[in-house]
Amino acid sequence: MFDKEKHYKELTILKTIAETLNQNTNMKEMLQTTLEKLLDLTNLKTGWIFLIDDEPDYEHVADHNLPQALAKEDKEAMRCDVCLCLGLYWAGGLNSAVNMIECERLYNAKKYSWGDTANLTHHATIPLTVRGERLGLLNVGSPGKESFSEEELTFLESVAYQIGTAIERTRLMEQREKQAVDKIAQYIVNYYANVNHVTRYIWKINDMNKLLETVVREIAQSFKWPTVAIVLKEGDQKIVKSIYSNGKSELSHIPIAHHHDMIHRVFREHTYCISDEQKEHLPQLPSNQFTVAIPLKVHEIRMNVEPIGVLYLGRETETFRGLEMEILELLTDHISLAMEKIRLYDEWQGWLIAEERNRLARDLHDSVNQKLFSLSLMARGLKELMKDSQPEIAEVSHDIGQLAQESLNEMRSLILQMRSQGEVKGILGALQDYAEQIGIHLTIYMKKTVPLPTEIEKAFWRIGQEALNNVKKHAETNRAWIRIEKDSNELRMKISDQGRGFVPERLEKCTQSIGISSMRERAAEMNGLLTISSEEGIGTIIIVSVPAASQKEGGEYEN
């Protein structure tokens, strides 16, 4: 009866130890909780576990109820000294559970007065093994207990084998986790290498068409994907602008039907859309099992974003997933910035050309134009002077005057052609074009065009540009209104919006900004005045007023 109860108790302990070992996948936590449970179930007081490699490497990984002599100074005695049990282990003489007649660590603690040993003098040492592979040592003991029976040692060996099996399992899990992490790390490294390869190409390009074709080709060839396309927004339409399929890249101009939900959903929601259905392919492109559409965004002031297009990708191998999408979104950021860089580069080039044309126009106006005008006047004067006394010379003078006037008209036409956009198209047309470029719907409410002197027109053009920029950046609306009117005393341009407006305090700060100051300065150059009125939730009105100009002889204007 006694043996049955003892056997049942041992089985219960083994079952409990097995359950404890399976509750944790962290090596040190698993061994610590298992050691504590073992000591509690066996009524033993103290224990510790070493995981051992080749001599002299070992690690003290768990302990419970160490005496003060061994626990002091962060358990230094358990980490620094080599003891008899470790020596036997490395010598190959410790293959089964044994009674250690004298613990070298406890002996040194007494000899060198390290502290209280709690009457612990002996312990059992049990090797931790699995299928013949040695992993470490389990040491257990109690104060006053000088030896363990053969039955106790055999039972402790059974427990040690369970622990050894759990150690091997945990190491295999850690190894698999490390391999998985290494695989993911390599995946990320390779992905970023491909992204870097693509971005190295695109940042060298200053031509939009070349960029669009290069992007789809380099992405497809770097990632080995069969289908890549870029879709851009043009007005209310979504147009496929470049394609890579069937091993080649090309520019295109293919409108996307409104029923293609995937692309239109990306534009609406400003986030990527993943599809595992072949029906989501783009027109004139082969269908792929797995596709994704990622927005190309331009970041504006106040952290707003405006989708300018979509990067479309298709493949047959697997669906696009979270980590991959994070990297692809970084790639689309590069593409968007490269496109914005080209747009700004083209705009800068346009300004350079316009400035040079304006400079040439001013030079021609100030030199050749004035000389031709003077020649025309001199010929007219000579004609009047000679018409009675020398009619032949008067006739030649008339011909010279006509030729000078024709040349003057041609010169004025040439100067007109060389003037800036605002001057050539007229201020209203130029401002409407500019508003469309930045996404503002501009309404012109006036019945007829008011003729403006050149300098005033240029000033109104620049002030109007800045006002529309402010609507775009701050008003939180995409609509604006403009009116230019003239009375006997002054010319006025009024630009208004129905956006969020300003409170008085913010209006005061706003009027001190560089943009507002620039508008005031341009108005002041025309002897004019710029006023701003705004109300929160109602909108903002900017009015610039300049004195009406009087025309001088020769077609010029003077304030």
Looking at this protein, list some descriptive labels:
6-stranded antiparallel beta sheet; 15 helices; Beta-Lactamase; 4 domains; two-component regulatory system; nucleotide-binding; 559 residues; disordered C terminus; alpha+beta
Describe the fold and architecture.
The chain is of the alpha+beta class and 559 residues long. The chain has 4 domains: 2-175, 2-Layer Sandwich (Beta-Lactamase), CATH 3.30.450; 207-320, 2-Layer Sandwich (Beta-Lactamase); 360-418; 427-558, Heat Shock Protein 90 (2-Layer Sandwich), CATH 3.30.565. 52% of the residues lie in helices and 22% in strands. Strands 8-7-6-11-10-9 form a 6-stranded antiparallel beta sheet, sandwiched between helices. A 5-stranded antiparallel beta sheet has the order 2-1-5-4-3. The protein has a 5-stranded mixed beta sheet with strand order 12-13-14-16-15. InterPro entries: GAF (IPR003018), GAF-like_dom_sf (IPR029016), HATPase_C_sf (IPR036890), HATPase_dom (IPR003594), His_kinase_dom (IPR005467), Sensor_HK_TwoCompSys (IPR050482), Sig_transdc_His_kin_sub3_dim/P (IPR011712).
Please provide the count of β strands. 18
Instruction: Name the structural class.
Output: alpha+beta
Which percent range fits the helix content? 40-55%
* Span of the ends, CA to CA: 123 Å
Q: What strand order characterises the main sheet?
A: 8-7-6-11-10-9
| Percentage of residues in DSSP E strands | 15-25%
Overall residue-averaged pLDDT value: 83
Low-confidence stretches: 550-559
C-alpha geometry: elongated
Task: Tell me the CATH architecture of the largest domain.
Answer: 2-Layer Sandwich
Q: Briefly, what CATH class of the largest domain?
A: Alpha Beta
Relevant CATH superfamily of the largest domain? GAF domain
Domain count: 4
- Using the CA coordinates, give the radius of gyration: 44 Å
Number of continuous helical runs = 15
GO molecular function, one term: phosphorelay sensor kinase activity
Catalytic activity: ATP + protein L-histidine = ADP + protein N-phospho-L-histidine
Protein name: histidine kinase
GO cellular component, one term: membrane
